[in-house]
Amino acid sequence: MPVISQRKTITLALLMGSCMSAPITAxxxxxxxxxxxxxxxxxxxVVTAQKRSESALDVPISIxxxxxxxxxxRTLRNLEDISLVTPGLTLDxxxxxxxxxxxxxxxxxxxxxxxxxxxxxxxxxxxxxxIFSPAVVPVVFDxxxxxxxxxxxxxxxxAGSMGGTVRFIQTQPDLTEASATxxxxxxxxxxxxxxPQFSIYGGAPLVNDRVAFRAGFYYRxxxxxxxxxDRDTGAVVEDDVNDTQTxxxxxxxxxxxxxxxxxxxxxxxxxxEADDMDLYWADAGLNNTxxxxxxxxxDEYLVANLTADYDFGAFSVKSVSSFINxxxxxxxxxxxxxxxxxxxxxxxxxSEVFMVPFEPAVLTDDFVGHMYWSTDQKAxxxxxxxxxxDTGDSKLSWIAGFYYQRSEYxxxxxxxxxxxxxxxxxxxxxxxxxxxxxxxxxxxxxxxSYFDTVDNVESEVAGFANLTYNFTEQLSxxxxxxxxxxxxxxSQVQNGFWxxxxxxxxxxxxxxxxxxxxxxxxEPSENxxxxxxxxxxxxxxxxxxxxxVSTTCAPDLPGGSNPTEFNSDQLWSYxxxxxxxxxxxxxxxxxxxxxxxxxxxxxxxxxxxCLNVYTDNLGDAKVDGFDVELGVQLTDSFTASITxxxxxxxxxxxVMDDYGQxxxxxxxxxxxxxxxxxxxxxxxGQIAGVDTFGNISVSHAGKYERTGxxxxxxxxxxxxxxxxxxxxxxxxxxxxxxxxxxxxxxxxTNETPELGKTRVFGGSPILLIRTLRPRTIGAALKxxxx
Length: 786
Fold this sequence. Notes:
Layout: H1 6-35, E1 46-47, E2 54-55, E3 63-67, H2 68-73, H3 79-85, E4 89-92, E5 101-104, E6 116-120, E7 123-124, E8 143-150, H4 154-157, E9 164-170, E10 179-189, E11 194-207, E12 211-222, E13 227-229, E14 236-238, E15 244-256, E16 261-274, E17 280-281, E18 288-289, E19 297-311, E20 315-333, H5 335-349, E21 368-388, E22 396-418, H6 421-427, H7 438-444, E23 448-470, E24 475-496, E25 503-511, E26 514-525, E27 528-539, E28 542-543, E29 565-566, E30 569-582, E31 587-599, E32 602-606, E33 613-617, E34 621-633, E35 638-651, E36 655-656, E37 662-664, E38 675-687, E39 690-701, E40 704-705, H8 717-720, E41 721-722, E42 725-736, E43 739-746, E44 756-759, E45 767-770, E46 776-784
Parallel strand pairs: 6-9, 13-18
Antiparallel strand pairs: 1-2, 3-8, 4-5, 6-7, 8-9, 10-11, 10-46, 11-12, 12-15, 13-14, 15-16, 16-19, 17-45, 19-20, 20-21, 21-22, 22-23, 23-24, 24-25, 24-26, 26-27, 27-30, 28-29, 30-31, 31-34, 32-33, 34-35, 35-38, 36-37, 38-39, 39-42, 40-41, 42-43, 43-46, 44-45
């Protein structure tokens, strides 16, 4: 399918906005006049997307915002749930090691740095995809709201916010009122276990109008549904292996030192322990696996923040100091990878021993391979920003500031095997003399065949400013720029059989990216906004190990070496949009159309023999699309919401490597669904005199191609085509004073689409699949102590 032109995309978006708004406005005007009553408008959410408090309907960018109450009512527990109902927000669930990646408007990372910014309040959370750990995503717990900002946000949010930014905004302490909420629920998953969840949170003034606190605790033991079997007998070794336990806690204080000065320290802690991966083997059947060992994952992090505000009257100053400490670890079953490759590689080394080639299954009967990964992250950031206050008599508003961030990552991985006498006898010689390096095994106390440690340091120093000028009450324009100095330093040491002995590499990469943004905003009335914008985004570059020093990788490098660094990639996004309040506030309609030019895309290249991966800049791409969000207050009790997003992203050129392989092909898709959307019907009224609430929601994500076409490196016809995903969920409950009781269902029709599909290792016949959690039905209780 050809790429939609920029002109057609913009025209389509505006036509949809004008054509849909006219009949809706007329219909509701007639209905309200005939009924002779006052209508009740839709709720509005105040956001800080532009680092100022504004109604989401007044912000001249494409934004999706969900209040804490909406997240709870719609059973949106995590980022995956939110992505199913948010146009343009996509999780890549291909199932590879290192977790899921996140993209907005088709700007998906396959290597290098993240393309989507993540924030907890004012603290940046993103990290490189090369660290082999998932994005840092807080649980949905005591949140005031979640904001999804579409399009590059580099001017105000810096590196990494190329496709957009996701912000988790926690509820803040209240200086005047006390409140507390208790939530408890239990749910049963089809062919799985029982999930309990409990949370309590609240706050109160400690000194009226001067000091307040807010605190909370969250616990969830999420039941698994995948069974692990013995591959020889088929017997169940362990059922529901992929259960996950999560705890989270937070504490925030607010000191109103004076009418002008406030200080807000806060801390957030989260720990997740997954007993196994949410992947099943295609050959074992739906929700079954033949792994030889469990594959646990532990993720623990602490976010500390200190925010200070001072109001000077005409302008204010905000200081934001943040610290993150994260420890992540994962163990993977490497049996099939080692069992297939080890005999062949050893056969080449000790050819005199082998008269015939070994079959890949030689080591698998009584042999287990393990790969251990760990990441230790420490990140510091400091922002000081100055912004004008709305005095009502100035046509100019502005924001400016300085930003510093330093992130340190240590990634360790080592591969080890359970070697027994039978395996050694089969090979015919003492395997430990060749595979296991004595010093490594002695140091770790394990039969280690491979060891790798990487130390990365990323830093960014930036200054930014944005000016908005109001020419009239209806027309305004803004211009902003961010000038950054980024630096990436890396050192890597590898040792062991797989790399032919110890190798080391040290690299440094630095750049000075400039991220401008321009916007024009026209409000013909208080209920209508038209805007157009152009913005640039970027993510930082980095370094690669020098694989030419490895005896097993050198044959893959006919040019003698691989690139030891890669540059940042950049994009320009052009957007037009319209935001409308219609029918006396009973209808909200937001429409936007966009065109993106993405240059020097960071991509991964896998060396065919040693299977190591390096990153390089691999050509350009274009993305065209639109977003539509419609909310309608049908009656005083019924509300409907319809959303849709489309993003058609394709490479605009063919890129070859130094030895003639096609890395990407012109018109190849970027590997994310082009279409996604949702429809939800809400009820909030009385039935038989009882306050009743409920909703039913259907979400859909379209088909797409996971890999390139035949002839492209990494192409795989068996996993290329990703299925469409449709999910139905709902909730029904009653309010009895301070108590709310409800029943809910997720994946009500028990759909099993292949969300992700990958191979256990390159060339393996074993396919790993990720699907939706089976149908889950539960009951919830909420008690407000207000």
